[in-house]
Amino acid sequence: MKNSAGEKGYPTLFFHTNARWRMGLLVTFLVISISGGFYLWYSQNSNDAAPDSMAGLGYAVLGTTFLLLAGVLYSIRRRSRNKRALGQLNSAINWHVFFAIVGLALLLMHSFGNFNPRSGTFALFGLIALVVSGFVGRALDHLMPR
Prior knowledge:
Elements: H1 19-45, H2 54-79, H3 89-111, H4 121-143
């Protein structure tokens, strides 16, 4: 999609839907589906369905890892001097979004429905606001001219 200045911009849905994007989407759905299936099984068959249980700790560690990967890998890619060595920037932003969505989903599963203010709910709300602001920024990047 090219604008009047000849620059290549984002398509209507803000994602370049190519084979890499579909692969990232498949990996995202696969990780969330497996984690969600374990979440349902564990919450039905365990007496310790709480954020401080072993499963809750596992979700917290995995969610934090995915969020760190989202931030660090995209930051490294943006600051890299050798642009061709690490792939295209639009592919990096797609993986950034996919990792952030998986991280948020895992951290929501980590809470096991325990949303009292003592348990870090404000941090969770801040994280949700961060993800929403990322989507708003992506939309503004599409809508506003360079």
